[in-house]
Amino acid sequence: MGKQKTYDTALKQERAVLVGVITPGEKPEQTKEYLDELAFLVDTAGGVVEKNFTQKMLKPDRATFVGTGKLEEIQAYVKAEEIDMVVFDDELSPSQLRNIERELQVKILDRSNLILDIFAGRAQTAQAKTQVELAQLQYLLPRLTRLWTHLERQKGGIGMRGPGETQIESDRRMILEKISLLKERLKLIDRQNETQRKNRTQLIRVALVGYTNVGKSTIMNMLAKSEVFAENKLFATLDTTVRKVVIENVPFLLSDTVGFIRKLPHHLVECFKSTLDEVREADILIHVVDVSHPNFEDQIHTVNETLNDLGARDKDTIMIFNKIDAYVTPKTDEYNEEEIAPLTLSDFKKSWMAHHSSPTIFISATRKENIEEFKQLLYDKVKAIHTSRYPYDKLLY
Ligand SMILES: Nc1nc2c(ncn2[C@@H]2O[C@H](COP(=O)(O)OP(=O)(O)OP(=O)(O)O)[C@@H](O)[C@H]2O)c(=O)[nH]1
Ligand SMILES: [Mg+2]
């Protein structure tokens, strides 16, 4: 991915290997992108990836995700290279996790708890902290039986009743109690936020949406002249920020929110629904795309799916293709026999415009390219909505 690396050098970096399954019809460059993204997640969490393991399969194995042969190969490598953790590119079921842990005898993470871990480290507000903790406990609950394997190891498989079982039962009860407590707390926070939103003036609401790391916060900072945290890591933003922005004489509210990602853990989406209220209640969406990312078309798809889940797919949307300064024309498809002409940015632009009706602008937020056109477009949209909603309100113009 060629991303710069910023590690916390005070800590010893944990060394990881990645495991992915290649399903039929998946192109090699897609597989590479998926694992690159997983590596970027590991990097964001503070680890370093030593090796990728992949296996071609119809679908992940129900018991062990990959085949037993592949698992042995991984085990040999983990042992020889003293690897700290093995990260799987999908959510593992409780039984998969148990089986794999027994085989590999090393820390196992899956895509979901890796993302949850990053979120936990990022959460700032009470709302985000509560949401992440809730998602983590819900993830943990069906996997509590993992404790058995530790007990099994310690006790050599004998004496499984008694303290072990009680321990799990009381742990489960504690977690369930905590879950309902967190849900109550979230409800309260939601109610407070709702009142806050209702008390806001009748300004038009615009929300920045998009895949993680595409430049949403950078654009927010540019438009609102604010200082929202932006960096080259995944999920720099977790909490929604709302700012009042004025373009020419038209004020509106702009919100910056959590980025989306492929295979976002189900619990997490549920728990973050209220954070995404700003998106659901927005009048206009600005869908930001990182056009310099090799997989940006997949990312657009993921974002649209997530918007669909939120019931926000049919909103007035402006498409912003950001990072045009970093766009590199892809090489002729090296994995394919057929020759495909390299796609320049202007080729892509033409074909996109021919097939899509949403207003679209290609910009560079960091180099300030085409920003005036973008602002003009936004201004026109906001003004149009404002005039139709408040026909007699001359105050603002
Ligand atoms: N080359 C280039 N980099 C950019 C541009 N816009 C933003 N970036 C960089 O992209 C990285 C991510 O930017 P953010 O604004 O944090 O992205 P985000 O969409 O808010 O990311 P999350 O909050 O993590 O979902 C940062 O390192 C930015 O400096 C651009 O136009 N060109
Ligand atoms: Mg951000």
Automatic annotation (TrEMBL):
Positions of Mg(2+) binding: S217, T237
A Pfam family this chain is assigned to: MMR_HSR1
Chain positions recorded as GTP binding sites: 210-217, 235-239, 256-259, 322-325, 364-366
Protein's UniProt keywords contain Magnesium: yes
GO-annotated cellular components: cytoplasm
CDD domains the record matches: HflX (cd01878)
GO terms, molecular function: GTP binding; GTPase activity; metal ion binding; ribosome binding
Alphabetic keyword roster: Cytoplasm, GTP-binding, Magnesium, Metal-binding, Nucleotide-binding
Main location per the UniProt record: cytoplasm
Cofactors that this protein relies on: Mg(2+)
Record domain Hflx-type G: where: 204-386
Compartments (UniProt record): Cytoplasm
NCBIfam families per the UniProt record, alphabetical: GTP_HflX
Purpose: GTPase that associates with the 50S ribosomal subunit and may have a role during protein synthesis or ribosome biogenesis.
Oligomeric and partner information: Monomer. Associates with the 50S ribosomal subunit.
Family: Belongs to the TRAFAC class OBG-HflX-like GTPase superfamily. HflX GTPase family.
UniProt name for this protein: GTPase HflX
